[in-house]
Amino acid sequence: MNCPDSASYEIEVFFDGACPLCRREVEFLRRLDRRGKIRFTDISSPDFKAVSVGKTDDALMAQLHGRLPDGTWLQGVDVFRRLYAAVGFGPLVFLSRLPLISQLLTWGYSVFARNRLRLTGRCNTTSCTAKPDGAAAHAPEKAPD
Fold it and tell me: What pTM was computed for the model?
């Protein structure tokens, strides 16, 4: 497994920089991350290769992924909790763990993740369509220059 060096960051987040909503969230977190506790990795960058972190492009596009310095992987809402804890929003993270709130956040994020390309206007003939095995294709169309 390709693990990052032991560092001062608390979490590495793998985000889709081609997604306008995702990019806005990352810009917000970057502004708040004054102590450098988050490592940001844009999976839409031409230089990024999913195989270098032991994942597939489809897996990383399907939902938000984070990796802790010890190599542990997190997904979905758990990544957001770690990100917000890293920038000092501990009380918000605590509330997000309450049973009903946690269930609603998990459900809401799963709906968003499944429909992210459609919601951000990035569907094309190969994305946003169900494959026979039920998995969604997640190849984003490049935006015109």
Answer: 0.78
